[in-house]
Amino acid sequence: MEPSTTLVAAFLGLLEGLTEFIPVSSTGHLLLAGHFLGFESAGRAFEVVIQLGAVLAILTIYAGRLISVFRAAPHDPQARRFILSILIAFLPAAVIGVLAHGFIKTVLFETPMLIAVMLVVGGVILLLVERIAPEPTHDDAMAFPLLMALKIGFIQCLAMIPGTSRSGSTIVGALLLGASKRAAAEFSFFLSMPTMAGAFTYDLYKNRDVLDAAALNEIAVGFVFAFIAAVLVVKWLLGYVSRHGYALFGWWRILVGGAAIIALTAGY
């Protein structure tokens, strides 16, 4: 792999880790950055597979808590309900993602202007929800009602449009359904584990014939940088949103999306 490609893969991995768990659309950032840098992976596998680094970052941080939940599940109804809530929330994305995989990867992933517009639209929505979200009635991400979890799962499917943001859609959905800012972010973390692991596994299977040694090297570099950056972001994010909310990320989306629209319109 050429050094320049190594640096691009490292940069994109860092970008993935920094943006995966904040509501700004990591996929949107990756695809736009790849477009302007002239980077294109085989089958767009790089952009999906390096998300495993971010998944492992979440698993590392929450390992003790998750182990406790699974150990308690045989005799603790609350632990079983939490596990079920995550599975229920994951189900819509699993079904729709498989059915629409080809369209998402060959059409939506290849439309930079759509991605840029969705960044701006999502930023406006995030700023609006900050103002209109109801008073929180759910402060514990591990105790969301099952129907609420299912609704968040359907809202998460909007993130199949790149630029929308998986974390952004789940956080906005949770806030509108009465979750506190911290609980909304934390439930998004938990839901990301099966969602991203499932996307990684399915995409790796679908692209197994086009991944050569060079592609795997790029993915390995991106994976490492995504893991490191995601660990730092997750540890910082919960405290930040509890104190300051999500407005910063809304403005960031509008800035990045607006700049991308201008650049694309100018022919870049």
UniProtKB/TrEMBL annotation:
One of its GO terms (molecular function) is undecaprenyl-diphosphatase activity. This is Undecaprenyl-diphosphatase. It catalyses: di-trans,octa-cis-undecaprenyl diphosphate + H2O = di-trans,octa-cis-undecaprenyl phosphate + phosphate + H(+). Belongs to the UppP family. Its EC number is 3.6.1.27. InterPro entries: UppP. It is a multi-pass membrane protein. The gene is uppP. It is found in: Cell membrane. Bacitracin is thought to be involved in the inhibition of peptidoglycan synthesis by sequestering undecaprenyl diphosphate, thereby reducing the pool of lipid carrier available. The keyword Hydrolase applies. The chain crosses the membrane at residues 49-70, 82-104, 110-129, 141-163, 214-238, 250-267. Pfam families: BacA. One of its GO terms (biological process) is response to antibiotic. It comes from Sulfitobacter noctilucicola. The keyword Cell membrane applies. GO terms for cellular component: plasma membrane. Keywords: Antibiotic resistance, Cell membrane, Cell shape, Cell wall biogenesis/degradation, Hydrolase, Membrane, Peptidoglycan synthesis, Transmembrane, Transmembrane helix.
